[in-house]
Amino acid sequence: MSEVIIGVDLGGTNVKTAVVSRDKKILAKDSRPTRAEEGPDAVMDVMEAAVRDVMRQAGVETSQVIAVGFGAPGPMNWQTGVVYSPPNLPGWKNVPLADAMRDRLGMPCYVDNDANVACYGEYWMGAGQGTESMAVFTLGTGVGGGMIIFGRLLRGIDGTAAELGHMTVQRDGRRCGCGARGCLEAYASVTGMVRTAVEGLEAGKESALRDMCGGDLAKLTGKMISDAARAGDAFAKYVFEETATWLGLGIATIVNIQNPEMVVLCGGMIAAGEMLFDPVRRVVRENAFEVPAKRCRIVPAGLGEDSGVLGCAGCALARHEEQSA
Length: 325
Ligand SMILES: [Zn+2]
Description:
single chain; 325 residues; alpha/beta; Nucleotidyltransferase, domain 5; 2 domains; five-stranded mixed beta sheet
């Protein structure tokens, strides 16, 4: 009887679930709406049903499941599995997610933050397979981060380490969602890129972007900017280059501090391909020390949208093995 691990990626919009074998084969997958607006109990109902459905799909029994790993938005305590109060999960306040799901499912349950599981997914099954030292930047509404050192997630004493999006890159810079100023996230996230574009357009820059958003700058999206840049719009190209430069500065700092074998970029923005990666690699070469800059490969995610859910499974397996060792 073969053993499996189950990953559950709890997002504000969708719950993604996967059954993975010990030798890293995906046996079943599921995605369904989170029903976040109905509060924690409804969301846990959704996750419980999803886990039972993927088990049925994969034809596995409870006794074959080594562990179930959950990836949830922070802040949280990864050791106790208590989720404090994530902004995109209304009504959640100190929810003992690991205990509650263990009671429901009767299987060992582990909870980790969503950026760390995405990082672990890329390390375990994605672009970073075979490395021992790597970092992941997830580019979305914010900039998520994770770091693997000696084959393990860098946790920090309070479990808050590797918040790569919140390294300060500009004194007295833009206000960040975390309350501080000048964080990388305020410049290199999709939201930051849109903000760079809006600031330029408000200052009178000419660009096809004005027509693309119907004259309403509040409707401008990251995709419009990359589409316009790809079509040759000079201002959109500048915005992309600017965003990539901020990101490159952040990565150069990590390259100097960590000396990683690889930096993996995740999120919708990586679809821009060389338009993003070329300037990022150039800025890292120009700003990091030569030896670690040469060593470090900067690559797109290998698992696409699945880094999180597969990382949930991988992380739970690693934690379960550590605990039983
Ligand atoms: Zn911040």
